Amino acid sequence: MLIIILLILQSIPIRSTIKIEKKNNSQKFNEVCQTLKSSQANRSDILLIGSTMKRFIIITKNFDVYDLENNNLNLKIDQIFLLGSKPIALNLKYPKLFRDANFQQLKRSILNAFVFIGDRREFLCFTGRTESVTITEQSYTSLCYDLNNDVIEKRRLFAGEQFEIPISTDLQNVLYEIRRENQSLALIEYQIRMKNRQTRQGPIRSISSHKLMCLTMDQRIVLTQSSNCEHPITHSIYQGFVVRNRFYLFGDNGVMIFSQRSIKNSEPTALIEKTFDSFFNCPHHSLHNLAKLIEDGCGL
């Protein structure tokens, strides 16, 4: 009988520890998500956000990775659902990338990152400053991780301007860029070819003119080649992506959403603005899931 009692007593701390660990993990996952919802998420927490052909990827500056189904982005209400999604540390999600010596050197000075879809391959690309002293074309480099083949490649994708913000897109061989020009923001479309692993990336070919981002009197957005922009968009853009013909740009005022067609036809189009809090849908403890949380050992 004494042996049985001792065994029962020994089992209680173990179960309690498991419950505490589950609760701590759940709390940590929710804290990561909550940082995306904060008003400063665009500036301080999101390193990369964009879509591959089948997945939607978010990487924070703490190197936590959300690998989501594409349908986690609801276009009807313009919201990303992170319910049931757990971030994974980059060293566990992409161990070869994380262990790479070039990435270890670059990750301390990453300026921007983006998703790029090539003809047959998909990449996570990170651009940072090299050890060059002067700000020249040689002072910036991009490291691209081939998701399909688990291969890491060095690429030179930008001229090296710190204020160039790459915008991931779900189109093949296309990359957008935000650039500040004369106190206004310009949107540029590039075509990039990554032919094979042995061939270095050639010059970037612009396939559309620089277009200024302007507002009309009725608060629609228009992208125009004309220098006559009475109401230019001047606030900073830090990150963004294009998916299913819609731009999502993260800036000082939250998330700007508008049709991709605006870059082709230069006609005013509707502009939707959302806060980060309303754009990212995080897990929360509610009466609806309280019983499940307690069952899993995550309840209070």
From TrEMBL:
Signal peptide annotation: 1-17
This protein's UniProt keywords: Signal
Protein name (Swiss-Prot/TrEMBL): Uncharacterized protein
Species the sequence originates in: Sarcoptes scabiei
